[in-house]
Amino acid sequence: MSEESKKFGAQYDANVYSSYRKDTPVELIEKIIAFLKEKPLDTAVDVGCGNGQSTVILAPYFKRVHGSDVSEAQIEQAKATRSLPNVTYAASPAEKLPFEDGTVQLLTAATALHWFDLDTFLPEARRVLCANGVMAVYGYLNMKPLLDDPAKAVEVDELYIEYEKALESYHVMSRVSLLQNRYKDVKFPFEEVNRCPDFRCCFEGKLPDIVNYVSTWSGFQNFKKVDSKGAEELLDYFKKSASPAEKLPFQDGTVQLLTAATALHWFDLDTFLPEARRVLCANGVMAVYGYLNMKPLLDDPEKAAEVDELYIEYEKALESYHVKSRVSLLQNKYKDVEFPFEEVNRCPDVQCCFEGKLPDIVNYVSTWSGFQNFKKVDSKGAEELLEYFKKRLYEIGAACNMSSEDSTTLYRNFQLILCRKTKDGPFV
Length: 428
Known about the structure:
Blueprint (H helix, E strand, L loop, with lengths): L2 H9 L2 H7 L5 H10 L7 E5 L16 E6 L2 H10 L5 E5 L12 E7 L7 H11 E10 L11 H17 L6 H8 L26 H8 L3 H9 L1 H15 L12 E7 L7 H11 E17 L4 H18 L5 H8 L11 E14 L1 H8 L3 H9 L1 H21 L8 E14 L7
Parallel strand pairs: 1-2, 1-4, 2-3, 4-5, 6-7
Antiparallel strand pairs: 7-9, 8-9
Helix pairs in contact: 6-10, 8-10, 9-10, 12-16, 14-16, 15-16
Protein name: Methyltransferase type 11 domain-containing protein
Organism: Larinioides sclopetarius
InterPro entries: Diverse_substrate_MTase, Methyltransf_11, SAM-dependent_MTases_sf
């Protein structure tokens, strides 16, 4: 066991880790299980198991699952909160596994390998694995919001870089760099080593979840022990930067118009809406608007209906890749949102027409967050879906004597909600 691992295990707050680290996604485990050749599945071992988040998810597939971690506090947390009949836990180092030679079919290390003494652990892992046994090493560096605006996504990346830089002297860099470099410098002593493409996992959450997550970093925890005030100031800076809509840099009652263009559904509304009210002056207005689709303006009602059906089909194909709770807010025209203003006007849709070409529509649907997520998971499948959308759209256009090269009228139906603050103070 590395000295850094001993220190980390002894000092780490198991409750913080359990509260703010996300469970291992089922999709990832299913990929690992599919890679295993030997059936039936008997024994799995999760090393560096922490509070058992990455251990219990193996239980449905194996007769026996064992989780080990150097931290006794983490193991106690695992036993208390993630106990199952076929799952056992023990506080023990990854470098000395309590199993006989060739008795383990799957050994996993979830965002943990960089803490081990690899010169000792890797031969030990090979020792306990049976013929055709698998060691699955996986991990992630950052948790981020899925943003449609590329410029804002870059800002989040830059914020993480800034945060990491501030913690650099508090991280055990030789360990963290192994993970940051995706374990590229690690020589795995196995006949078959597969470095899989990144696997993006989406889940429902709020921006505070990200702030809580970065507070679990070992570098932040080390900084906090040395300079508690400085660490909290850094975390507060990260929080304010990561949540710009929820923390507006204006004094009370100083803004006359606040707009949110196809964006409101991405905000933490419990925080944003009171903040919007705070900065608006008396009779100040918040304008919320957005659109879902871009379509050609067709004279033939039947062909227009075919375009509508094509969009429904495309949306259905991407359903599992969208952050549904967010997109559904926009799809439902924010009907479920309670705006804290005295005057709320839900206007009829505003149709906005402009000149364009059919390829503009194809390019537009390729920017959808659901499509981008699909592309990360299955690039070929995503491109085939987009090609199908394109082909079908062009067929409808051709039936209306419209080619992909022709300039034509396109339109977007904008939803518009106008909210007026007529009184100072909180909404009653």
